[in-house]
Amino acid sequence: MRLWLRAPLAGTPQDAEGGMRVEGGRIAEPVPRAAAPAAVDAAFDASRQVRSDRVMVAGRWRVLDGTIPGLDLAARTAAHRVAAARLRAQA
Questions:
Q1: Strands 42-45, 26-31: parallel, antiparallel or unpaired by DSSP?
Q2: CB atoms within 10 A of CB 18
Q3: Residue range 66-87: average pLDDT?
Q4: pLDDT at position 89 over 90
Q5: Nearest to 42 by CA among 90, 2, 83, 85
Q6: 45 forms bridges with which residues in the sheet?
Q7: Most distant CA pair in the chain: distance in Å?
Q8: What are the CA-CA distances from residue 70 to residues 27, 36, 49, 59, 73 (Å)?
Q9: pLDDT above 70 coverage of the chain, percent
Q10: Helix H or strand E segment including 22
Q11: How far apart are the C-alpha atoms of 25 and 19, rounded to whole Å?
Q12: pLDDT: is 84 or 24 the higher one?
């Protein structure tokens, strides 16, 4: 089953603000804001769901205290801004 978790409130990287397409229990495709994933069998609107403070997937904690362990959000944001500036300069 291909499920689109539409716009979850927490636990998504910035390139998946529109949600994630999940297939076989794994994230198959991040979905950017205002985009739609490839073919799906069902969709779940998670935009009004309560924030998840803890999420375990396949025996590993993926979200702890509302954050993704090991993710340096500030560094990732900075790297994305640099990459975006390069793309704008090439246009």
A1: unpaired
A2: 21
A3: 88
A4: yes
A5: 2
A6: 6
A7: 44
A8: 18, 28, 24, 17, 9
A9: 92
A10: strand 19-23
A11: 15
A12: 84
Single-letter residue type at 36: A
Q: Tell me what the pLDDT averaged over the chain comes to.
A: 84
In the sheet with 42-45, reading across from the earlier edge strand, the strands are 26-31, 19-23, 2-6, 42-45
Angle value at C-alpha 30, between 80 and 21, nearest 5 degrees: 175
Give the whole-angstrom CA distance, residue 60 versus residue 55: 8
Two tokens, residue 64? 């702890």
Q: Is the pLDDT of residue 10 over 70?
A: no
Q: What is the three-class DSSP state of 31? A: strand
